[in-house]
Amino acid sequence: MNRPHPLPAALLLMTLGTLNCNLPGRPKAGPEVPRPDSILDFATLYQQNCSACHGPDGKGGAAQELADPVYLGIADDGALRRATANGVPGTSMPAFSQSAGGMLTDEQVEALVRGMREGWGKPDILGGQDPPSYAAGTPGDAQRGADVFNTFCASCHGPDGKGGEKASSITDGSYLALVSDQGLRTAVIVGRPDLGAPDWRSDMAGRPMTHQDVSDVVAWLAAQRPPFPGQPYASTAATGGSL
Question: How many angstroms separate the CA atoms of 34 and 175, rounded?
């Protein structure tokens, strides 16, 4: 009886090595997936963290239009960094930095700020004009703000801010409950280009709003905010069994 000839040792090792590389379920050779905290590409970071609210290209989202050069002209890097890292309390803007409970490193926050500035900013967008400051600094006068609103805003938003032919209500309780005072200030200064709302220079021809005008009208708007956001609107018709 003939016995099978044993395979040479070298051939046996080669065969086992080939089988080992092609075992079912074993991943094939290829580029490794990068660690999430190592990604510094602006487009990737923006798409994954910002686009859902601010729009895929910094425009067209429910939140502030970030690809607006005027906005980037009044908001310095510190303001952008703080909002990205720490969020905006009382609004839907969350904190993204790891130090504040988010997922992004300090380097990634910097990459986002730098990408917005380099990709969407225009250094000469303000044309040498001195805009109202991004932050209020001191509280405004709500009583005077009512007159400022009638002068600069009522033609679009209506005399009481509840909406007009050109723009919607800006004193709606649900809206005011979701926007911070800083958000109101930003909207007054920058406008909403996506909605046709002008910036502080164009509400009234030849008369830009001053720093104090903006602070006062924001104080008036903030005074319209409901004390208990989220409560149902008052109804004149009482329902049976209600307290």
Answer: 40
Per-residue pLDDT of the chain (243 residues; tens, 9 = 90+): 566 555 565 555 555 555 555 556 666 676 778 888 899 999 999 999 999 999 999 998 889 999 999 999 999 999 999 999 999 987 889 999 999 999 999 999 999 999 999 999 999 999 888 899 999 988 999 999 999 999 999 999 999 999 998 899 999 998 999 899 999 999 999 998 888 889 999 888 889 999 999 999 999 999 999 987 666 666 555 444 443
Distances in Å between the Cα of 28 and the Cα atoms of 18, 34, 71, 210 are 13, 17, 48, 64
pTM of the model: 0.77
| CATH numbers and ranges of domains, the chain | 39-120 (1.10.760.10), 142-223 (1.10.760.10)
> To which H or E segment does residue 83 belong?
helix 77-86
User: Which of 225, 19, 180 shows the shortest CA–CA distance to 89?
Assistant: 180
- Dump the DSSP string for 140-169: --HHHHHHHHHHHTHHHH-TTSS--SSS--
Instruction: Note whether 84 and 97 are within 8 A (CB).
Output: yes
Q: Which residue has the tokens 């969350």?
A: 94
Residues whose CB falls within 8 Å of the CB of residue 198, separated by 6 or more in sequence, listed in order: 191
